[in-house]
């Protein structure tokens, strides 16, 4: 597997547009969800910083730490978005997403960075429930704010289990579906009173209104642990972070 598929061909005006490799497989998700992430891509990073007051960077570092990835490993980042986790991993990283626009932004960010380690990232357009990789290919895997949005979470976990080497870890960062009524109420209020109004300033109110329902339709920490064990992981532990508003599943192959 090539470590790098990053080729910045010249385009009009003397600028460069980094390319990424497509798997050329149909993405098995709703076209509406795929279109949503393409629409929010241009302001996704700014909104993450604004809405979390920059705290998302701390949570992502925690997720990377829990993955157990170390120097020399080949790491998979599923639903990579604009590349935050991939850049933090900065090993030999294969970063996959179904959003063309998010991948273009991720590749552009890579082109702007000078450290050699950032060049070891390959961007791939593909599907979390149909990973185009051989069995036991990766030493670690991450997925940040992605499992909640895939059409078949069990199949996505099965795919990540399949491509991980025995003993490797998967780290899954996302919003926490809390079992605490108080935490859930505060989370709903934050989305309705802060997230959606702020997003509306970018013309994206309807795009962010989906967030509350997607959390309600997600799995609790215990349910995530059970699902990971069901698909074959030997160990699974869910950690609540940020006062229970976020959570991270750590599963060992």
Automatic annotation (TrEMBL):
Key words, A-Z: Chloroplast, Methyltransferase, Plastid, S-adenosyl-L-methionine, Transferase
Record HAMAP family: MenG_phylloquinone_subfam (MF_01982), MenG_UbiE_methyltr (MF_01813)
Protein name per UniProt: 2-phytyl-1,4-beta-naphthoquinone methyltransferase, chloroplastic
Matching SUPFAM superfamilies: S-adenosyl-L-methionine-dependent methyltransferases
Gene Ontology biological process terms in this record: methylation; phylloquinone biosynthetic process
UniProt key word Membrane: no
Example of a GO MF term: 2-phytyl-1,4-naphthoquinone methyltransferase activity
First-tier enzyme category under EC: transferase
EC number, UniProt record: 2.1.1.329
One Pfam family cited in the UniProt record for this chain: Ubie_methyltran
Catalytic reactions of this protein: demethylphylloquinol + S-adenosyl-L-methionine = phylloquinol + S-adenosyl-L-homocysteine + H(+)
Any single GO CC term annotated in Swiss-Prot or TrEMBL for this entry: chloroplast
Similarity comment: Belongs to the class I-like SAM-binding methyltransferase superfamily. MenG/UbiE family.
Subcellular location(s) of the protein: Plastid, Chloroplast
Cited function: Involved in the biosynthesis of phylloquinone (vitamin K1). Methyltransferase required for the conversion of 2-phytyl-1,4-beta-naphthoquinol to phylloquinol.
């Amino acid at each position: 597997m090539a470590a790098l598929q990053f080729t910045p061909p010249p385009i009009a005006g003397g600028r460069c547009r980094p390319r990424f490799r497509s798997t050329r497989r149909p993405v098995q998700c709703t076209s509406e969800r795929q279109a949503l992430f393409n629409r929010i891509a241009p302001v996704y990073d700014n909104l993450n910083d604004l809405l979390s007051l920059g705290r998302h960077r701390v949570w992502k570092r925690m997720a990377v730490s829990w993955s157990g990835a170390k120097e020399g490993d080949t790491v998979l980042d599923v639903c990579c978005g604009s590349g935050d986790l991939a850049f933090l991993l900065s090993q030999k990283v294969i970063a996959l997403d179904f959003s063309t626009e998010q991948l273009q932004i991720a590749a552009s960010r890579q082109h702007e960075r000078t450290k050699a380690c950032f060049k070891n990232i390959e961007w791939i357009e593909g599907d979390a429930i149909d990973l185009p990789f051989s069995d036991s290919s990766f030493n670690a895997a991450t997925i940040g704010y992605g499992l909640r949005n895939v059409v078949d979470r069990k199949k996505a976990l099965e795919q990540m289990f399949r491509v991980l080497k025995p003993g490797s870890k998967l780290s899954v960062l996302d919003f926490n579906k809390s079992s605490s009524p108080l935490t859930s109420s505060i989370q709903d209020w934050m989305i309705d009173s802060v997230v959606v109004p702020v997003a509306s300033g970018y013309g994206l109110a309807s795009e962010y209104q989906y967030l509350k329902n997607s959390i309600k339709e997600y799995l609790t920490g215990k349910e995530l642990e059970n699902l990971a064990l069901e698909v074959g992981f030997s160990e699974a532990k869910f950690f609540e972070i940020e006062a229970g508003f976020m959570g991270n599943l750590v599963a060992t192959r």
